[in-house]
Amino acid sequence: MLYVIGLGLSTIEDISIAGLNAIQECDYVFLDAYTSILTHGIEKVSAFCGKEVRKADREFTEQDSLMISLAKGENVAFLVIKEKSLDNLLHDRDIYEPPRFMLCSEAAYQILEAGCRIRQRFMDASADPDVEAPCEPEPEIYLHPDCLAICLARVGSPTQAMLVTTMGILSTTLLTGDTDNHPNILSGPLHSLIIPGKLHPMEIEFLAARLLIGDGKEDLENVPNGTSLPVLLPPTKASRSFRERVEAMFDRHHELLSTNF
């Protein structure tokens, strides 16, 4: 029997009880070591499970059939952080899945830059009849740099961090390489980027909770730990206070939503 068991969000202690019981009944345990980033070493996984854990790299996971062969007569556990390669594994396909890890700033830049390219293609076709128009229909809306961006890092771990800013600030930081106004708030992987729709008042209350407790200081040099509230990084407005800039950031996001939807 082959058991495909997902690990927790941050540490091996987050694994389900059913998953742990299955591991302890297995004769062989393999750990996926390439489709995502493990926040703890394989030795810790082995010590927690009470089993020898073997690392399964990219070639072993997607090309070698050893796990499938062993599972025909014995119990085998395959510990995964994400499931991107399971279809290839079960069908014994020699296909390498490309890595898709990036920082939130990289994701924001790529999203906005792709929208600019698409818009420019349609503008060129509209202005010059000799330019061939794109085959696909033009999108009805484009993501605006003023849209909110909620950045998460190492969710569920003791060092998790959250940042609330705009897509434009994130992408500009990557484009210019200027980090003077964008301190290392998120730090190491894994990162997640959320581009929200219309926010409920309670969601805004949480995201802007630093203001509710009177923490309106603009000094962001203190990297938050896992118990910190979201860090706020609104656009710079010389004539406005920090609180006013945060409120304007949320108002602008909702203004864009009401205009485009």
From TrEMBL:
SUPFAM superfamilies reported in the protein's UniProt record: Tetrapyrrole methylase
One Pfam assignment: TP_methylase
GO biological process, one term: protein histidyl modification to diphthamide
InterPro entries in alphabetical order: 4pyrrol_Mease (IPR000878), 4pyrrol_Methylase_sf (IPR035996), 4pyrrole_Mease_sub1 (IPR014777), 4pyrrole_Mease_sub2 (IPR014776), Dphthn_synthase (IPR004551)
Enzyme Commission number(s) from the entry: 2.1.1.314
Reaction it catalyzes: 2-[(3S)-amino-3-carboxypropyl]-L-histidyl-[translation elongation factor 2] + 4 S-adenosyl-L-methionine = diphthine methyl ester-[translation elongation factor 2] + 4 S-adenosyl-L-homocysteine + 3 H(+)
Pathway(s) of this molecule: Protein modification; peptidyl-diphthamide biosynthesis
Segments forming domain Tetrapyrrole methylase: 1-80
Similarity section: Belongs to the diphthine synthase family.
Biological role stated in the UniProt entry: S-adenosyl-L-methionine-dependent methyltransferase that catalyzes four methylations of the modified target histidine residue in translation elongation factor 2 (EF-2), to form an intermediate called diphthine methyl ester. The four successive methylation reactions represent the second step of diphthamide biosynthesis.
PANTHER family, per database record: DIPHTHINE METHYL ESTER SYNTHASE (PTHR10882:SF0), DIPHTHINE SYNTHASE (PTHR10882)
Name of the protein this chain belongs to: diphthine methyl ester synthase
Organism: Echinococcus granulosus (Hydatid tapeworm)
